[in-house]
Amino acid sequence: MIRRVLAQCTVSDLPRAEKWYTVLFGRRPDARPMPGLLEWHLDDAFGLQVWSEPERAGRSTVVFEETDLDAAAAKAAKAGIAHDGPLPGGGARILPLADPDGNRVVFSGT
């Protein structure tokens, strides 16, 4: 039985990525399980790993369902994360963001 999911983004510069994801989530990583790996535990059943693997950096996509997409967009803008605002997508709306390596971090919601 699967009990937990950790999505993963691969990055080229872990300290730079840590700063960006810390701003995105409004807090520092919850764990550093091994060298080159950061984890944000966003709930008991899911989270995000940020993994330093320069040769694969920038090829990841993660999607988070958000209860208030407009608030998420405002929070990202206030934190200095550039975006074009919520857009139509997949029968709902999406807020596509990109980390410094170009990984796609997409929030979806209404």
From TrEMBL:
It comes from the Bacteria. SUPFAM superfamilies: Glyoxalase/Bleomycin resistance protein/Dihydroxybiphenyl dioxygenase (SSF54593). Residues 3-110 form the VOC domain. This is VOC domain-containing protein.
